[in-house]
Amino acid sequence: MRQAGRHFLQIPGPSAVPERILKAISLQTIDHRGPDFAEIGHKALAGMKTIFKTEQNVFIYPSSGTGAWEAALVNTVSSGGKVLMYETGHFAFMWSNLAGKIGLLPELIEGDWRGGADPNQIEDRLRADSQHEIKAVCVVHNETSTGSVSPIEDVRRAMDAAKHPALLMVDSISGLASIDFRFDDWGVDVCVSGSQKGLMLPPGLSFNAVSDRALENSKTVTTPRSYWDWQDMVGPNQKGFFPYTPGTNLLYGLIEAIDMLHEEGLDNVFARHSRHGTATRAAVQAWGLEVLCARQGQESGVLTAVKVPEGHSADAFRATALKHYDISLGNGLSKVADKVFRIGHLGDFNDLMLMATLSGVEMGLDKSGVPHNAGGTQAALEHLKAA
Amino acid sequence: MRQAGRHFLQIPGPSAVPERILKAISLQTIDHRGPDFAEIGHKALAGMKTIFKTEQNVFIYPSSGTGAWEAALVNTVSSGGKVLMYETGHFAFMWSNLAGKIGLLPELIEGDWRGGADPNQIEDRLRADSQHEIKAVCVVHNETSTGSVSPIEDVRRAMDAAKHPALLMVDSISGLASIDFRFDDWGVDVCVSGSQKGLMLPPGLSFNAVSDRALENSKTVTTPRSYWDWQDMVGPNQKGFFPYTPGTNLLYGLIEAIDMLHEEGLDNVFARHSRHGTATRAAVQAWGLEVLCARQGQESGVLTAVKVPEGHSADAFRATALKHYDISLGNGLSKVADKVFRIGHLGDFNDLMLMATLSGVEMGLDKSGVPHNAGGTQAALEHLKAA
Amino acid sequence: MRQAGRHFLQIPGPSAVPERILKAISLQTIDHRGPDFAEIGHKALAGMKTIFKTEQNVFIYPSSGTGAWEAALVNTVSSGGKVLMYETGHFAFMWSNLAGKIGLLPELIEGDWRGGADPNQIEDRLRADSQHEIKAVCVVHNETSTGSVSPIEDVRRAMDAAKHPALLMVDSISGLASIDFRFDDWGVDVCVSGSQKGLMLPPGLSFNAVSDRALENSKTVTTPRSYWDWQDMVGPNQKGFFPYTPGTNLLYGLIEAIDMLHEEGLDNVFARHSRHGTATRAAVQAWGLEVLCARQGQESGVLTAVKVPEGHSADAFRATALKHYDISLGNGLSKVADKVFRIGHLGDFNDLMLMATLSGVEMGLDKSGVPHNAGGTQAALEHLKAA
Amino acid sequence: MRQAGRHFLQIPGPSAVPERILKAISLQTIDHRGPDFAEIGHKALAGMKTIFKTEQNVFIYPSSGTGAWEAALVNTVSSGGKVLMYETGHFAFMWSNLAGKIGLLPELIEGDWRGGADPNQIEDRLRADSQHEIKAVCVVHNETSTGSVSPIEDVRRAMDAAKHPALLMVDSISGLASIDFRFDDWGVDVCVSGSQKGLMLPPGLSFNAVSDRALENSKTVTTPRSYWDWQDMVGPNQKGFFPYTPGTNLLYGLIEAIDMLHEEGLDNVFARHSRHGTATRAAVQAWGLEVLCARQGQESGVLTAVKVPEGHSADAFRATALKHYDISLGNGLSKVADKVFRIGHLGDFNDLMLMATLSGVEMGLDKSGVPHNAGGTQAALEHLKAA
Questions:
Q1: Does the beta-carbon distance from D7 to A22 stay under 8 Å?
Q2: Where are the beta strands (DSSP E) in D128-252?
């Protein structure tokens, strides 16, 4: 039986793609070597600099975000080099895993998955590395598996305090264009991102923002690479072109997305995500449930991970909500599998869509017999009225 | 400044058009005289019979619903002929107005705009018409200006009881495909409808379902007509064609819409609209406001008209809701202008979209200072949980 | 078996709809009574004035062109009034037929279907009408059934020479936006047009351009009317609205179409159609076939009707071309049924598309055994090279 | 000034994307971890096996074809390993270049760019490699820079004759789904392809078809890899999922493309490309120009590279054709830069589109003053008539 109305895709990415972007990506493909393409290339590259808030370098890959993780590492650290990572959650773990697979030596500072990276721990570790064997510090900005935000600026300060030359590499795949990020101001060296979160596109494009220092450094890095090689990008990019066939139709969408973000204003975008995070937590509290992120001030505006009471299955609840209310919620990953569900409130989203989402969660909790207090929906509504 | 997320078009039509239909209408136009067109014509005509629940005749016009009102009259009543109408609200009044403009003599039974047509009054009037001067009885099924439903089957019984030969003509522009309608079972002679309500299309197509008796009768009707003439349609329609250029792209969408309705099941569609009507009224009651439709059992599943307290402006409230929460609500028309607002809950719509809608109404009431009790949203949610 | 590549829709309308317009019409429908709609209404109405080249009045109907024919007559001539028409071909005949159906007295000057209307015959007839019983002179600008163009400016001069007060009414359904038309300069009183020809839209919108004189005159016209009534349009149109639900999504497309025409420049649009008409006739001549339009200087830039040799079936040829080369050509209508085929070269069309079209015709002639000389395609190509 | 009508994108890929596919890729993105996704994953993977004609393995990457080149190598040859390549043209050269960049030792057999790979040379080289240091033989099936086809089956025979255990790796980025390719029958071990040629999609997906032997062998290959690692794909693919976020919207399009190819029939697709190649060469011959591919029987059905007479600029000609006739033609690459232009006749293409294309080439030659004989267009037409 057909379900009426719109599906609510409330996983923490891909986010629902707005009509304007879907129309843009369905324009006819053009010759990526022809004279009309340069404008597209220039707009996409220059536009992404305004999103990363950088005047340095941006590279765009036809790949998913995982590819941009790999790109960040192979261009910065020679085979066998050490990278320091912080286990904010599943994705931080996966990134360190990837580093190992491609021949680097990742060192993972253990975390409890309930907050962002701890700058003090990073500083301590760097001070202990008197030989400067650590080539890069890798931190996840918005940990998609937990809904926690790392204080990137503080990590930079910690590195500076330790007087350590490692590069600061940040994964903001799910944070960029939803919560504040400032590449240049914060002294980031490489930022990894993807198209299907705050940028509101389907998956298929990924990004590296790169500091001049990291780009210069990459010339001496010996890790074999071709597809991901920044140096091959520089020349063609300057003319608005790419060294190999780009994802033309997604680039159409990217330009539209950048326009949409600026039409709303990045600060308004950030305030909106923050408001929705707070309202969601008001609902969770009223339901008598617990938010996974336990560190105040580090809760994400992108998604909220919610713990279900012991003895109940988060996945069974999600299946019920999907079946009866046509809403997709995110699952708990690895350590928290079946113990949490994740509410995505990112991308092209507004107050009424949030209320629909929270209504779907509350009805799903009710229908699947997860113990909770009714009224979280109204609590969120009251929060939004006051905001 | 751009508003993020989806606009909520919650007027009682046009309803928001689903993606499947938007894609269908954007297919390339084909030759409406060519061999491939016949399948489209046949599918649209046969499909509409399943929606009207008739095995008699359906005609499709490239026009808005107003045109189909005119078509219904010019094919059934000769110039100067009498038609009996019942003032359920603004649209019943407008239809009688149109009858006068095209040279007929409409007689309008006054109503209070707070319920459907009264079969007893109709029966009395018909009994008094011993000369059978009244050629047609015209009733609005779902009065879009008030949110009331007329008991069509009872009107038919009243006409039969009065042993009056007048044709029964029904406007179900906003009722068809949202609330139960049975052309053959109920003994309707002409039903007028349009594309932009329960059929989920953009405006631009309109319909006449026509009984064999009315079609035969039309041969003797002398009112001049060309565009609307049923007789010109019959021959071409039998082969899947039309006497003049049809609205090809909207027909693509119509076929898709009919498929979607049957994929869900018409009974499920009706139950859904009914549930949403009830939930909306639960919210209105909890807000301490009054529903315009005052006759129990005649409240519409398509829309709910809500009275604002004396001294407050429904239109100011609507403007506030639109500005702050990006939701379009219907205005009060003529007699009830600025005194009511109308919540559309029709078309391709589901529980979460309703909750979004009611949240928007409640936040709008709050923001615009219309006196009300908070909590209507949660009241509707409780209703949906229980449903 | 699926046929690869694009279908060539080379009938004389509907013309193939460009991607930009298909995308525009698939945008979400909005509230046609809401504040955002006014801009759409204003743009559509003001834009159409630039296409008609008038500073007087334009009305837009959600209907096909046949409706606009009816609208032109019911607003200008009271029931029983005389209209003088000129039989340029099938569509002129159909218009006069319609006039009869709605209660007017059409008088049709016979024509041979091989050229435009003859101003001298019209002048003679008007001079003979000393009682001024003729209320309107109706002429088809571009006769879609024959590919001939009537000299509208000369018809106006003839009417003036005869000092006759009748209104000049022109059908430019297939001429507007493809060949030169100047409402104000040429002294036209009513021009009828439709969306699916030079305007490149799907069918479903139609137009009346109306002189101030005709609009004023309509107040005294007694023919019953409602849907088509100009007077109901005037007030709402001034605010960017319509008296009943408009064809919102086609209006989106119309605005896009008007932009596209001005981006190319109307004079360039006309020159392009003229060049393609000439090139097509060069092909026809090289094939040794005959163009239906026999009056030099009146051949249409919109379409070319071609006679097939006696004893051969134009329809069999068309079916062969469609089956083997996926090209739709127009059929001969009524008097010339099966004797001519029509090549549409209108709308969003360019030199290479014309060459594809003529290649399809030549291959179709060859495949279906219609006697002709090979080489028409190359002849057209040489013409285009020289142009 | 806007150019009317459709742009003709006649480069040898990306090919013009058909409407059906553009609509498919603009459907809303869904949860790639949710229950509905599995059907999409299964359809895409199983469907690609029917296109490669294999019952072994297919992997799909969100990347352009260059990524699939890299994937083929990093999964099959350990760092420092030797690969034998054959210089059929620019792309064969680029692939060998890539092999060097990622730490392999490519050996390139020189070619004259005027035909496919020579199996005899390959056999001789393999026989000389008695130590079996060569781990893979890499051949381009359809060389996009020259329009020549390599005899893959003969290469396999040559390898067998030499009793050499190297893997046979084939680039059929521009050949697949346009000209005959049989992965299993021909004994290929890895075939690399991309979405934007015969598969008619925008760029952004790439493919590896992989023999069981190559997949088993990959377990022992030590080249570091993560994004491209086949082994990570196997498990998730079996359930219809991917190890990281896939290019969901392009997968929608891929499924549509596979359906379209089978609706036409692969053999019909191949026959169509072959017919268009022959017709194009008939035109080139009539123009008195020379086709770059000089080996009879190895001319491509995908594209035709044409030499311009000495002293003339192919690029100036292409710019003229683009400006005046809105047709994009492919440029000459590296060794043949400015000396050849390439006519793409691949993808969703038909006889009339080919005639449009050749007309554009002939008009462009004329306009830009490249010496040639008129009449190539008609020569191609005569060929198509006879076909």
A1: no
A2: 134-140, 142-143, 148-149, 167-171, 190-194, 205-210
